[in-house]
Structure formats: C-alpha cells, structure tokens
User: Which sequence fits this backbone?
C-alpha cells in the first residue's frame, strides 16, 4: 500500500508526518498551494528592520515639524495646486500610498476617515482642511501596525503575487521594496526642509526602533 505523508511547514523547517488516508494528503497539498509555505524568518525580519526604519524616520520628521512649518512648501510647482507641496500634505501622500501598496491593489482601497481618495484622482482638489499632526500620527501608527503584520504573514506564494498599477507591474515582494523606498524618499525631503529652516533635525534611522506587537 502506498504511504502518504503530511507536509508541515514552519518558518524554520518542513516536517513530514505519515498519513493513513490518501484524501488527507491531497487536502494538505491543496492547503500548501493556496496558503503558501512561510518565508524564511530571517528574510522577513530583515525586510521589517528596514521598512520599519523608514516609517520611524517619517515619524521622527512628522513629530519634529513646528507649527509654523506645517503648511510650508517643500517645492514650487506652477502646474499643481500649492497645497500638494506642503509639509502636512506630503506626509499624507506618503501614508496614503504606504497603506494602499500594502494591499497590493488600488481596487477596493479606501483610507480611514477623515482622509479621502484624492490621491487617486489626478484632477482632484485639495482636502477641505489641513490635516492635523495628531490625525496623521494616528494614521502612521495604523500603517506601521499593518505593515508589520503584512510582512510577518508573507509566504512564498504571497510575495510572488502580481500587482498592477498605472506605472507598471511587479511582484508583491518588489512592491514592498518600492513602497519602502517611497516612504524613505519623502521622509528625506521633509528632513531636508526642517534642516534648512530650523537646523539639524532627526538623524538617519538605520534599523527599526519602534516595537510592534500583532
């Protein structure tokens, strides 16, 4: 009689357990195909150490911004509305796409209240009011939690998922890296403005500092 084995996958090893019923073997294979085998723990830890550091860097600059620079412009672009270049809006833009990219698709995404989908409308008008530092801090905390949970749940199957946007197509793993670069790039712009206006500001974050519990 042919023997059947159960494949039990953990982040550290794959264990084979003998099964007595062929149907259970088929069910286990289907489970692995649908759910995927967890990625190596060291790889997920490394991704979070750097992605979390980018979020921490963004937060440090958000917190360091004085009230009189909250609506200061980072750049001058005649073809766009001035609000889109202001400190508070750049923070919002960064958090909006951080949140959206963690889902892997634009379809069905909606940011939490009081935020809107203006970032997905190329002809959109600025929000009716300036978002407060407290509102954006809360959103950042939520995004950090979601980012950590997303990375912690990665599998070989999920990182290979194809993601499509107007700017191109990539795997979910590449999208995570793109997302991290986007967060860090805007955090650096905010840091440069603060440095130009009020002197040395939050230093570069090399590894994540904020502990997150799922």
Assistant:
């Amino acid at each position: 009689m042919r023997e059947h084995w159960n494949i039990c996958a953990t982040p550290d090893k794959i264990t084979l357990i003998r099964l007595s019923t062929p149907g259970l073997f088929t069910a286990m294979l289907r489970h692995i195909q649908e759910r995927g085998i967890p990625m190596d723990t060291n790889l997920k830890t490394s991704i979070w150490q750097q992605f979390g550091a980018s979020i921490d860097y963004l937060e440090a600059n958000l917190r360091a911004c004085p009230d009189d620079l909250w609506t200061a412009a980072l750049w001058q672009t005649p073809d766009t509305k001035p609000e889109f270049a202001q400190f508070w809006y750049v923070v919002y833009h960064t958090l909006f796409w951080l949140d959206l990219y963690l889902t892997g698709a634009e379809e069905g995404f909606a940011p939490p209240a009081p935020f809107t989908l203006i970032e997905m409308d190329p002809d959109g008008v600025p929000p009716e009011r300036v978002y407060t530092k407290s509102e954006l801090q809360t959103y950042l905390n939520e995004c950090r939690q979601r980012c950590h949970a997303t990375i912690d749940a990665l599998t070989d199957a999920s990182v290979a998922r194809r993601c499509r946007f107007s700017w191109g197509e990539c795997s979910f793993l590449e999208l995570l890296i793109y997302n991290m670069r986007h967060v860090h790039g805007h955090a650096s712009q905010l840091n440069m403005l603060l440095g130009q206006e009020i002197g040395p500001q939050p230093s570069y974050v090399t590894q994540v500092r904020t502990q997150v519990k799922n």
Notes: The first helix runs from residue 22 to 35. Residues 1-21 have pLDDT under 50 and may be disordered.
